[in-house]
Structure formats: C-alpha cells, structure tokens
Design a protein that fits this description.
Blueprint (H helix, E strand, L loop, with lengths): L2 H14 L3 E7 L9 E6 L3 H17 L6 E3 L6 E5 L3 E6 L1 H7 L1 H5 L18
Parallel strand pairs: 2-5
Antiparallel strand pairs: 1-2, 3-4, 4-5
Helix pairs in contact: 1-2
C-alpha cells in the first residue's frame, strides 16, 4: 500500500475517535526502519486503546498490513506498527514525558566555521 494512503487511513482512524494533537513526522531521512511516525493523544486508557484498535481495524479493512501492537495492557502508550509507519497513541502525561516529537525532529546544523569567540562578538 502507498505510504500516503496508509498515512491518510491512520490519521482518519485517529480523528474518528477524537484523538488530540495528531502529529505526523517524516522520518525517512532519519531511520531506515520506517518512513513516518504518527503521534496522537488520548485522554484515558480506554480512549488510547480504542484509538489504537481503530487504526488497526481501518488499516486491515483497507487491505493494509499491521505488523503488531504493543502496550494494550495498560493503555498509557500503545504502539501500532504498520511497517513504513509507526503510530504512537499516548496519554498526555506519557506523551509529555517522552517528548517523541523532539526526538524525531531534525535539529538545525550548527556552523562548523564559527569559533568560540565569534558567538559573543569578540
């Protein structure tokens, strides 16, 4: 399945059950393991589990492959592995603590030409 279609299905499945703060990160240049990370927030264990299950079900219905689901026992953080896309559904406290958005965003490169004294105008 085309990655854009898979991403669209996963995001729609999250929106169906009122996920909050859905963020899609392109990780294709950062990891050979997957091309996208989707992060979403659910307000309770029940909602987090329902969001992950809905992603699973909608991808399967569309003929996509679900490699696995982890974390359903507690419902604080459920990971849905779709191969090229990894979906993280988390409760707000867990999402804030692990801050995956910062982990997967590319930091701006610092100039190698700058010398220590240049920074403060000396």
């Amino acid at each position: 399945m085309d990655i854009r279609k898979l991403q669209k299905i996963a995001v729609a499945a999250l929106e169906d059950i009122k996920a909050k703060d859905i963020e899609v990160l392109n990780t294709s240049k950062l990891s050979a393991l997957f091309d996208r990370v989707i992060i979403a927030t659910g307000d309770s264990n029940r909602q987090v589990k329902a969001l992950a299950k809905n992603v699973h079900d909608k991808v399967k219905e569309a003929g996509g492959q679900v490699i696995g689901i982890e974390g359903e026992e507690t419902g604080e953080w459920v990971l849905v592995d779709l191969g090229d896309i990894v979906v993280h559904v988390m409760q707000p406290v867990v999402r804030s603590y692990y801050n995956l958005e910062e982990l997967w965003k590319v930091a701006p490169k610092r100039s190698a030409k700058k010398k220590a004294g240049d920074a403060d105008g000396e």
